Amino acid sequence: QVQLVESGGGLVQAGGSLRLSCAASGSIFSIHVMGWYRQAPGKQRELVAAIINGGSTNYADSVKGRFTISRDNAKNTAYLQMNSLKPEDTAVYYCNAEVASWYGSIPTDYWGQGTQVTVSS
pLDDT of 54-66, one tens digit each? Predict the structure, then answer.
């Protein structure tokens, strides 16, 4: 089993910054992709940013230029630096990781419990 623990959410004024962290632990051989998703009330969960093992990144258009995803492979941890936050960024942010638990195993998706980000206007 694999556990993802998020931290760093909170309340911030528009224009401010927050940094989210996601630490993976448990039965981990390799993590192919780590990503951040968010879900606002009444809306579907959407991809915010993702980073693959080699370092390539992908961002939602709405956050390009404002958010930066990174990872520390030695710590099995991903980060999301969020700058110039807007009220529409308010949502529960979830960490996702595609994890292979042993050599040759099929990677499995795991999710964190979510962390609330609230941006006031």
Answer: 889 999 999 999 9
